[in-house]
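Readers of this paper often ask what the protein records in our data store actually look like. Below, we set out a record of this kind in full and without editing:
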Amino acid sequence: MAAPFTGGCACGAVRYACSAEPPMIVNCHCRDCQRASGAPFATILAAPKQALTITGEVHYHEVMSDRGSPIARGFCGTCGSRLFSFPEAPFIGVSAGSLDDPSWCRPTCDIYTDSAQPWALMNPELPKFSHMPPQ
């Protein structure tokens, strides 16, 4: 993995740097990630909150998860790039597509596979979880 890693939005108004390796990288197939990413799944890194530095103004939109808990999705207010999720948790979800160099990013599992689109191919070598993996 690459620690530290950096990234940001498409227009450069929001930038981030993380000094720690993510303990988990997931391909999330939930319907909210499908809608927010415009793709069959979103690849998300769990970045330790204390190791993540964000510059620029991040806007958040809150939605309800399938478990009924709120999820805040962070994006750039200028270009609309989706960047973060769960800003109040110990780990902040970082969208892999926003990494400056995503080539090192290797998902560790597929989650919310019950919502996966039947035409989306999943890596058969990754563990699969119908919802969130056990903590």
The chain has one domain: 5-115. Helices lie at 31-37. The CA atoms of residues 110 and 123 lie 8 Å apart. Residues 5-115 form a domain with the Metal Binding Protein, Guanine Nucleotide Exchange Factor; Chain A fold (CATH 2.170.150.70).
